[in-house]
Specification:
CATH architecture of the largest domain: 2-Layer Sandwich
Number of strands: 24
Largest sheet: 8 strands, antiparallel
Length: 529
């Protein structure tokens, strides 16, 4: 087993991996950019190395700096988490060349499966259903026009490399195809260094269902059942659950066998996810393979009692899978909500700044994977995911109610988040029924606004804060001494008090004789900075 692992990531996934390493008695090394110097993952690791400036290309994406950090700390393996370098075949290859184990699949599998054109061809030949579309490479725009006309609109333009919605466009008419194609190619080139795109038939309101898989170096493969990830915004998942509300046991078995067939067809090892689209007629189609640990992996962990990160580390160390398919028996229902630093009332625009107050939920059946703490800054340079709330219940309704309770208890002040939006989503009648599709938000929650009840609660909270502040001023001599008395944060500052004058300015000072710097008593005015 490894003695020390460098975690080449940040935020909640870095914290998650560090915790797994700690339970395995493996030393951890964190890396960070200058803006993340006080981040939670840095505080938790056994060692930490600064990579450089905040920009990802100069820090978390700088392969040389990451590997230099591994060398200088004596790490023997690198865990990439998700995002950043996790699905970069050149980085995986370079790790091996420089003497480090890459905790993930081999660079050849990453390169092959990262190209959707190649993987579609291979999977199709293995007999797994694929979405009708173009599988040729180096196609001219005339070919794409001809194929689109043959398939019929709408069609989907997709980047051959990468994911996360980058380089993706839905085109509903011929006149918009050329502009959409050029835009998708530019975006794909910028995001992945490869402007190759291809065309698929657009499926109307499908479900997004994926199967977690795990394979070791000896060729042993298991599936760990499905997760439904249909609720998305801008092609990014925000709610995941397991089991799916739509699959019969027969269909579940068919999709699981297809997922294992994909893994065997490409000789895959490590943790991975085989993703499918499931249409309204009950047909499923291969979408892609994610060659890393997924954001939503805790959903699977809760229904099976398996630690996927530990299993991933064991496989990378050359150990045989110690879980057999016959022993994997899901129990209950799990739901995950991703908490993003975004403003859902303003088209989910990112929200950056300081977290002034944080209280995360807990209690029966509630888990929070978090990368934040009160007082930390949420920088503008990275993906805005802050944490994940994952709940488990004996059935779906209990899990849904438990998620509502957890989101109600989640208190985060200082920036905009998706917490209130997600709480309303849990009560949306179609979600309660389990009728989820990739068009769910635009169909049922377009233009979402915070309810009047929530705004009233906010006003009440502000009034309460103002009352608390007024009571603290009583202790500083600025209000009559007979005002109501409760303990406030100012009491915990010892002999320090708020002092100021009629200018409306105030500062924290340490009184000695009851006089301000100008010689006047606190309730006589004067003062100043």
């Amino acid at each position: 087993m490894f003695e020390k692992v460098l975690v080449a990531n940040r935020g909640e996934i870095a914290v998650r991996v560090i915790r797994a390493l700690r339970e395995m008695d493996i030393k951890s090394v964190a890396v960070y950019s200058e803006v993340d110097r006080t981040a939670l993952h840095v505080q938790m690791a056994d060692q930490a190395v600064c990579l450089g400036p905040p920009e990802p290309v100069a820090s978390y994406l700088d392969q040389g700096s990451v590997l230099d950090a591994a060398k200088c700390t004596g790490a023997d393996a690198v865990h990439p988490g998700y995002g950043f370098l996790a699905e970069n075949p050149d980085f995986a290859k370079r790790c091996g060349e420089e003497g480090f184990v890459f905790i993930g699949p081999g660079h050849e599998e990453i390169r092959f499966l990262g190209n959707k054109l190649l993987s579609r061809e291979k999977v199709g030949k293995a007999g797994v259903p694929i979405i009708p579309g173009m599988v040729g490479r180096d196609l001219q725009i005339e070919d794409i026009f001809a194929e689109a006309a043959k398939m019929g609109f709408p069609v989907m333009i997709k980047a051959a490399s990468g994911g996360g919605g980058k380089g993706m466009r839905v085109v509903d008419r011929k006149e918009a195809l050329k502009e959409s194609l050029e835009g998708a190619m530019r975006e794909a080139g910028s995001a992945f260094g490869d402007s190759t795109v291809y065309l698929e038939k657009y499926l109307d309101q499908p479900r997004h269902i994926e199967f977690q898989v795990m394979a070791d170096l000896e060729g042993n493969v298991v599936h760990l059942f499905e997760r439904e990830c249909s609720i998305q915004r801008r092609h990014q998942k925000i709610v995941e659950e397991s089991p799916s509300t739509v699959l019969s046991q027969k269909k579940r078995d068919e999709m699981a066998e297809a997922a294992i067939e994909v893994v065997r067809a490409v000789g895959y090892r490590s943790a991975g996810t085989v993703e499918f689209l499931y249409d309204m007629d009950g047909n499923f189609y291969f979408l892609e393979v994610n060659t890393r640990i997924q954001v939503e992996h805790p959903v699977t962990e809760l229904i099976l009692g398996v630690d996927l990160v530990k299993e991933q580390i064991k496989v990378a160390a050359g150990l045989r899978l110690d879980i057999a398919q016959k022993d994997l028996k899901p129990r209950g229902h799990a739901i995950e909500c991703r908490i993003y630093a975004e403003d859902p009332e303003n088209d989910f625009l990112p929200s950056f700044g300081k977290i002034n107050f944080l209280s995360e939920p807990d209690g029966p059946g509630v888990r929070v994977d978090s990368g934040i703490a009160a007082g930390c800054e949420v920088p503008m340079h990275y993906d805005p995911i802050l944490s994940k709330v994952i709940v488990w219940g004996e059935d779906r309704d209990l899990a849904r109610q438990r998620m509502k309770r957890a989101l109600l208890e989640y208190r985060l002040e200082g920036i905009k988040t998706t917490i209130d939006f997600l709480r309303d989503l849990m009560d949306e009648p179609e979600f309660v029924k389990g009728n989820t599709t990739t068009s769910f938000i635009q169909n049922y929650l377009p233009g979402w606004k915070k309810s009047k009840v929530e705004k009233s609660r906010l006003r009440e909270a502000l009034i309460a804060a103002a009352l608390d502040a007024g009571r603290s001023l009583t202790q500083g001599g600025l209000l009559p001494p007979d005002a109501a008395r409760i303990e406030t944060p100012w009491d915990r500052l010892g002999s320090w008090r708020v002092i100021g004058g009629t200018t409306g300015k105030s500062r924290i000072g340490k009184p000695s004789t009851g006089k301000s710097d100008t010689g006047k008593s606190h309730n006589e005015g004067g003062g100043g900075e």
